[in-house]
Every structure is written in structure tokens, then in C-alpha cells.
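Blinded run. Sample ID left blank on purpose so nobody reads anything into the name before looking at the predicted structure. Input follows.
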Amino acid sequence: MKNLLPPNWQFDTDQLPTATNDKWLLPPLVDLCARLREPGHQQHGTLKSEGNAARQNGFLHVVVPPDTQPVLENGSLLAGLRERAHHDAGIHLHVLGALTAGLAGEFPANMLGLKQGGAIGVTNARRSFANDDVLLRALEYAATFDIKVFFYPDEPSLSKNGVAHDGYIASYHGLAGIPWIAETVALAKQLLIVEETGVSAHFSQLTCKSSMDLIRWAKQRGLPITCDVAMHQLHLTDDALIGFNALAYVLPPLRSNTDQKALLEGLQDGTIDAICSHHEPLAKTAKQAPFAECQPGISTLDTFMALGCQLVRDGILTAEQLIEKIAINPARIAGIESQWRNIGGAVLVDPNQAWQVTADTMHSAGKNSPFIGSTLVGQVEQIFFN
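Blinded prediction complete.
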């Protein structure tokens, strides 16, 4: 057995089964972005169904964005949400509050109230700002109260109503494209304002080569930033859309082979700090309309560990580096490292276990995975969570 628990980790290995040859023992995983669909979108999943999917796949700590219905902008609502997630699914929920009121992008939200209510940070998700002055004032406000800001870079005037990466696949299928520059222009602006305000920032779900170049530049300048990539971006490109495959429709979109190669290099050289699931479960009907009218999103919790094991088999990461990207660094980025360590627990993984992705083998209520029907290798065998 490969023991990948951090030094002085709180876990009694006497709990382990006797036959653990060739298996991995990991700390609980930490997900920096998953939509568990409550409140307001229970037709796609619930705290109970998606929290259980997270737990069964090794995630004990899950960060959720505020673009729910209603928007998570009231600190008093957060405690109830956390309590329900723990009661219904046995996971620890960590909430990002709204950066602007109602995520409307017009003026800053009550960030102090959100911080007092237990929000670990704030974000405007993929919603736009009325103008750059609003963004500047919101970041100054966040910096004043020492609140981390999470960004999902996208310039709406460039992405418009696009549904796929702006390349050959989109053109061939007659789909509205989203150019890589839509992400990079937004990222460049946000980095400059982060430098001006000194706010601590995390950039989530980056997808393209130029974004990797900008993040490297910013880190070399000493900006207080981190970034992550969604697991599916490391394994899929826009080729997955061929034949109008709506199961691969996600925002930000799957990019080109060149972009994917740059992401893998960024993962190896430390430019990318973490890997998130970007879990977005959807009801079956959400993917049954014509491609551009479907809802974007991929159900990812169930395939996450297998795809992580594949990164190790492919020589992209060592097992130790994988744990840094999916547990150690995410806990630090979310500001929950002491809680993560104090709660402890462990996950036993069989990296060589082959299994088929089907509706029955997925724990999530959302079966919207482009891997459905595929055989993957690597699976959580047992969890040891209190």
C-alpha cells in the first residue's frame, strides 16, 4: 500500500482492511468548485444526492459558488446550508458568497456580513460587471476585510452566446464559438486590478494556453494568486463535441489540443495549483434539446478519481503530486487547512480497478457525463470519514 497521508495525519491505520496491496491511502479530497444544486435547482440534484456522491468519491470538503436561487449573498443563510449538507450527506460545505449584490455586477455585496456568516471567499461566478469601476471597488472592499476573491474569467462581450471553443469543430457544426481571448482578456484585467488592490485571488477553471502564460507572469511578479483547472479539461478537447454530443457541452468550453497540452504542462510545472471537479449535475431532459439549446454542464464527481489515476499512469503527475492538487493545495486555497487536518479521515483507492461508467455506477443524480459507457481505471474503494 502507498501511504499518501500528510505527516502527522489524524488517522488510525488499524481500521484498514488486511488486503491493501497496490492501493493508495489518501487524505480526504477538497473540491474547489461543485454545484450541488441547492437552493433552487433541485430538479437536477440535491444536497443529499450530490453530497453523497461527493462523499462516496472521496470528497469530504466541498466549495460551492453563490449562483443559486436565491443567490448566496446573505450571511445568515450560510449556516443552515452547511448544517443541512452535513446532516443530509455527511460532508463539510464551504460557501463562496456573492461579490456583487445579487451577482448583478452593479455594486458590491455585503461582504463583511458574508465573512461573519462563514463564507470562505466571494465571487461573481461567471456573471459580468456593469463596468470596471464596479470590479475595482468590489476588490478594494474585499481587500479591506481580507476576503479572498474567486474568479471565473470570461469577457461576455467576446464570449457572447457562444457554446463551444471557437475553432474547426464549432465551425464545422455551425455552433457559435467562444474565442480563447474571451477568457484571457478578462484574466488580464482581473490580474491588473488584483495587483492594484493587493487582494488575495484564486482563478478557477482556466482553459487555455494564453491563460497559463499570464498566470506564470503574475506569479513571477509576486501577485497573491492561485489557480485551478477542471479535471475534464485535462482529458477532453473540443473533439468530444463531434456529432453534436451535448454531454460534452460545458462552460467554459472544452478547448483545443494545443490548449490541453499547455494545461498539462502548467500542471507539471506548478503554474496550476489545484484540480477541481466543476461538478454540474443535470436532469436528463436538460441535454435532450438541440445542442445550443441544451444546458451546459458535466456531472464529474464519479469519474474524478479515475481520471486523476490516469494522470499518474500517463506520467503527468506522481501520486504524491496528485494529492497536492486535489487535497493539500485546495485546502490551503480555501483557507480550511486547519479544519481539514483536525477532522482528518482517509480514502482508500484502488488505482488499478477497472469499472464502467453507467447510470447505475454513478452516485450523482446527474448522469450527464461524456464518459458514460466508457471503462475507466481507478476507483475509491472505501472511505474512512467520521
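Unblinding after everyone has recorded impressions. The chain has one domain: 28-344.
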